[in-house]
Specification:
Its EC number is 6.1.1.2. The protein has 380 residues and is α/β, with parallel strands linked by helices. 52% of the residues lie in helices and 11% in strands. The structure holds tryptophanyl-5'AMP.
Length: 380
């Protein structure tokens, strides 16, 4: 197996690697049956589900059954700030969260662990990382979450409420198990094994089911949670797991926040988006315009086409037209890139406008759910 996936390291090289992860992690594929059941409740399906970018799950089938029997759930996910701003890949789980919140009218909890990337040595400046924590909270809120039903918290600020349950959780997980699931080596800091308990605690915020949309790299935390939840009279975590958005350099490359040539950032302006796509986006087009027109392009390895298919072209018919036109060489690489830049910008402009208007305090301190949570106390 070529792939290596932990919350701190992701190395995927093919669709085959994603399939193998399903076996390795012991999760299930999101299949037609499951999507049809969801659609019966929601009326339609978000593009990230329809196109199977969220491709695996643990227990989501059970959750839908329980939901139909009148049981409730809440949503929990998070973002660990680092030494740079969020890119479009980081936003994927939050876009699905917004859709789920609209459909099910449920509470959403967003954890911003400002210690995680510092302890993982992905950033060297803790104070700067803390500043990014607020920037990221604002970005996440601007996907359109409901301020009455959303609580965004930064770990170092909210720690008083997290610490007591973390005391209980930390006792239940041995270094042996943590190593087995996360593969720590001897150079790992002692912060990270403890951090596991802090990422598990929010699954206990409510007594109903925690539903967690996230990248598949985050699954190990919740596998451990499922082993211990019942000890605390809490429900086992349900995950819906996504693949990773490719970086600009090509299929299965990492979109890395520390490499601007690989990523589109949430605050990039139109000129920057267009420039990056035109200059850096790996193309599946022919070597010359003549060759492209004669032999056609390969949408399956083209980063622009990939981005359209993941999220930015919601119209299935239009996507098919682009795919066929590109494959036949009728659509040029330049045209495809230009179109992609426009679609990405349509999306980003909206986020950026919301970002300026957002009253972040409502999500973090004094909104309906936020003010309740500042009084939250863990009781078994
Ligand atoms: P972080 O900050 O590394 O990433 C935030 C979320 O984005 C996902 N992600 C991606 N999804 C698609 N394409 C990409 N290229 C891409 N890069 C990152 C991640 O899988 C993640 O879901 N430990 C977490 C923060 C966290 C959390 C949680 C996540 C705290 N509590 C609860 C999920 C659930 C982290 O470092 O995420």
């Amino acid at each position: 197996m070529n792939s290596k996936v932990t919350p701190w390291e992701v190395d995927i090289e093919s669709e085959e690697d994603y399939r193998k992860l399903i076996e390795e992690f012991g999760v299930k594929e999101i299949d037609d049956n499951l999507l049809n059941e969801l659609k019966e409740i929601t009326g339609d399906l978000h593009v990230l589900l329809r196109r199977r970018f969220f491709y695996a799950h643990r227990g989501f089938d059970e959750l839908l059954k329980e939901y139909k029997n009148g049981k409730s759930f809440f949503i929990y996910t998070g973002r660990a700030p680092s030494k740079s701003k969020m890119h479009i890949g980081h936003l994927i789980p939050f876009i699905l969260v917004k859709w789920l919140q609209d459909k099910f009218k449920v509470n959403v909890y967003i954890q911003i662990p400002d210690e995680e990337k510092y302890w993982a040595k992905k950033t060297d400046d803790y104070e700067a990382t803390r500043q990014y924590a607020y920037e990221d909270a604002r970005t996440i809120a601007s996907v359109g979450l409901d301020p009455d039903r959303t609580f965004i918290f930064i770990n170092s600020e909210y720690i008083k409420h997290l610490y007591k349950p973390a005391i209980y959780v930390a006792r239940e997980i041995s270094i042996h198990e943590a190593k087995k699931v996360f593969g720590f080596d001897d150079s790992a800091t002692i912060g990270l094994p403890f951090y596991i308990s802090l990422q598990i605690v929010p699954t206990f915020f409510e007594e109903s089911y925690p539903l967690i949309p996230c990248g598949i790299d985050q699954d190990p935390y919740f596998r451990l949670q499922r082993d211990i939840a019942e000890k605390f009279n809490r429900k086992k975590a349900i995950t819906i797991l996504s693949k990773f958005v490719w970086g600009l350099q090509g299929p299965y490359t990492k979109m890395s926040a520390s490499d601007p040539k690989s990523a589109i950032f949430i605050d990039d302006d139109y000129e920057t988006v267009r420039y990056k796509i035109l200059k850096y986006a790996f193309s599946g087009g022919g070597a010359t315009l003549e060759e492209h027109k004669k032999y056609g392009g390969k949408p399956e390895i083209d980063v622009s086409f990939f981005w359209l298919s993941v999220l930015f072209e919601e119209d299935d018919r239009k996507l098919k037209e682009i795919e066929e036109g590109y494959r036949k060489g009728e659509i040029t690489t330049g045209e495809l890139k230009d179109y992609t830049a426009k679609k990405v910008w349509e999306f980003l402009r909206n986020i950026q406008e919301n970002r300026r208007k957002i009253d972040l305090d409502k999500f973090m301190y004094d909104g309906k759910l936020a003010s309740e949570m500042w009084n939250w106390e863990f009781k078994i």
